[in-house]
Design brief:
There is one protein chain. The chain contains 16 helices and no strands. The protein is mostly helical and about 400 residues long. It folds into two domains: about 45 residues, no CATH class; about 350 residues, Ribonucleotide Reductase, subunit A (Orthogonal Bundle), CATH 1.10.620.20. The protein binds fe (ii) ion (FE2) (2 copies).
């Protein structure tokens, strides 16, 4: 493969624009933002994966053809399918009975707690900040998903998978756009990207193995997203948020199916050593996902030092005998573990991953969920709404 002509380093931004070819518009450094501005606004990622052009246009993967046709028919548009005139009272977005707020209520009761003076008003404000922080991670994660899907278009060798990933790129653009607009118009000021999530997605975009973008995004992060969106959907009563989450989940269920259908085929032909690498990747990423916890910036906005309050949160969580993220984590593993089993990664190398996940208590989820490679139709809220409209209209 030819050397990449992309953005090799921050300082090369202007120079690399000039390498795009004779047809590229002439751009001078005067057209670009100042370096200091770019440092805060952009993150440059170097991809080490080869791009693949294929001359084989044969539609040889019927399940991916079906999934692609479904994706093409289920496209929706944020401006026509969502009612942005919906009036949203931000405080009504806070579920006061959510486990994380119950936990914080417990913290206000503890002797010496830095939030001992707090009442329900402060707790609601905290709830709104935590909600905004979560929506912000959804937005940043969706942008990462858009770039990962675009990478898959370029790096996967099969034409059916390139076609499908192109529809996913569009889906993820819509998700990013919708979350950004919802935060901006209805909620408040977005939070920066969580460093764990940022490191996780950057790793996928840099990796030289094309299937790692798939494994990390379609199998791990998409399962996480389905669980997180499902959790928020169950808790919220706000109609605009409810509808956008239902529509986004309809798309995400297809994305997980895409990963299972593609990787299931590829992993049948990998060596034991290569499969072990993928198993280690999953171990590392499930441990990371478990470690994710409160965003320190939330406490900053509440005028409390995270370092002061976290020990109390840990103690309260210990007393409650559950983490505030338990339900969401269970939802994640209920999607992830069955999917990983279907890819053959649980049992490869004499059950290497099965043993380790077993020690971590994750095998109880092995048969937890319906078959995500086929049940995306069950999530298709877009088709369901259109069918209902056709009957009533
Ligand atoms: Fe998405
Ligand atoms: Fe997705």
């Amino acid at each position: 493969m030819a050397e990449r002509g992309g953005l090799a380093a921050r300082g090369d931004l202007a120079a690399s624009r000039g390498q795009l070819g004779a047809d590229a518009p002439v751009t001078t450094s005067a057209d670009l933002p100042a370096q200091s501005e770019m440092d805060g606004t952009f993150k440059v990622i170097e991809d080490h994966c080869d791009r693949i052009y294929t001359w084989d246009y044969e539609r040889s993967r019927p399940q991916l053809v079906t999934l692609y046709n479904k994706a093409a028919q289920s496209q929706w548009a944020s401006v026509t399918d969502l009612d942005w005139s919906t009036d949203v009272d931000p405080e009504s977005l806070v579920d006061k009975d959510a486990p994380n707020l119950q936990l914080m209520r417990e913290v206000t009761q503890m002797p010496g707690s830095p939030i001992a003076s707090w009442g329900e008003r402060e707790l609601t404000k905290l709830g709104l900040e935590m909600f905004t922080a979560m929506l912000s991670q959804f937005m940043h994660g969706e942008q990462g998903a858009m770039m990962t899907a675009a990478k898959i278009v370029e790096t996967v060798p099969w034409i059916d998978a390139k076609y499908y990933a192109a529809t996913q790129t569009m889906d993820e653009a819509r998700h990013t756009e919708v979350f950004a607009r919802y935060i901006d118009e209805k909620v408040g000021t977005a939070y920066p990207m969580n460093p764990n999530l940022e490191a996780q997605i950057t790793g996928l975009l840099e990796d030289s193995r094309w299937d790692i973008a798939y494994l990390g995004m379609q199998i791990v992060i998409e399962s996480l997203a389905l669980a997180a969106f499902g959790d928020m959907l169950r808790r919220t009563t706000e109609p605009l948020l409810k509808k956008l989450l239902r529509y986004i989940m309809a798309d995400e269920a297809r994305h997980v199916a895409f990963g299972i259908l593609s990787l299931g085929e590829y992993y049948q032909h990998l060596s034991a050593a290569d499969l072990k690498e993928r198993q280690d990747f999953l171990l590392e990423h499930t441990i990371n996902a478990r470690a994710r916890s409160t965003t320190p910036e939330v406490w900053q906005r509440m005028g409390v030092r995270a370092a002061d309050v976290v020990p109390f949160i840990m103690e309260a969580a210990g007393k409650m005998k559950k983490t505030p993220f338990m339900q969401f984590q269970n939802g994640f593993f209920a999607k992830l573990v069955p999917n990983v089993r279907k890819l053959g990664l649980l049992d490869a190398n004499n059950g290497y991953l099965r043993e380790r996940w077993g020690e971590a208590g994750l095998l109880e989820f092995e048969f937890a969920d319906a078959d995500t490679s086929e049940d995306y139709a069950r999530y298709d809220a877009v088709a369901a709404d259109r069918a209902a409209a056709a009957t009533t209209g």
